[in-house]
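Entry 12.
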Amino acid sequence: MDLGIAGRTALVCGASKGLGYGSALALVKEGVNVVIVARGAEALQDAAAKLEAARSGEAFVKAVAADITTEEGRAAVFAVHKDYDIVVTNAGGPPPGDFREWDREAWIKAVDANMLTPIELIKATVDGMAARGFGRIVNITSSAVKAPIDILGLSNGARSGLTGFVAGLARSGLAAQGVTLNNLLPGAFDTDRLRNTAVGASKKTGQSVDAIQDARRKTIPARRFGTAEEFGAICAFLCSVHAGYMTGQNVLADGGAYPGTY
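Predicted 3D structure (tokens):
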């Protein structure tokens, strides 16, 4: 399927690895120009090199080593390119724990990264998208928005705040101007974060990492973890011309793990 977005320009956050990289990869294969941003310069350059090798047609790949959660980081990505047709927001989730141990600073950091930063990027791009008659914003959030995880209270709270904001903005008339806003909710994907979580659980419980991961797989109807590539394909579709009638949605990609009907 031709997604109809060749020649468009996308900003993809947290794109040096994992789900952000998978999303950037799917977009460059469709001929989309991609600006990738992440904090780790070395990993980011490695990702840029792989994207260059995979890109389709004349699409360009530009890398910005910056912290997108800061004003300086956001200024850096807009200095490289001003008018984005596609924005994929993505930031690492805050740490797990007991809410009794989190102070105000921990909450502010979580809200800043997982709610306010996406809102700032939306604010900086959405009116230009509307003026040009095309725009796609995809926020990578978490399946915990649908089914909260008790030890991920920081993530549950911050990402749910973003979800509510997007639900209202998506229905404000932007869709009539060709601009859609959707959230993509990953479950268990084979990423560094998932592996690090298993390592942490292993140290706490004494079980092996393999045993912990096998137990997690058994809770997923698909009986496996997702891949960054298939996540990226879903993201690319939401960015496509074919998804113009989808807006304000929370698209769950979790192998069937969410037990609810709605």
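Annotation: The mean pLDDT is 95. The beta strands are 9-13, 33-38, 61-65, 86-89, 135-140, 179-186, 250-253.
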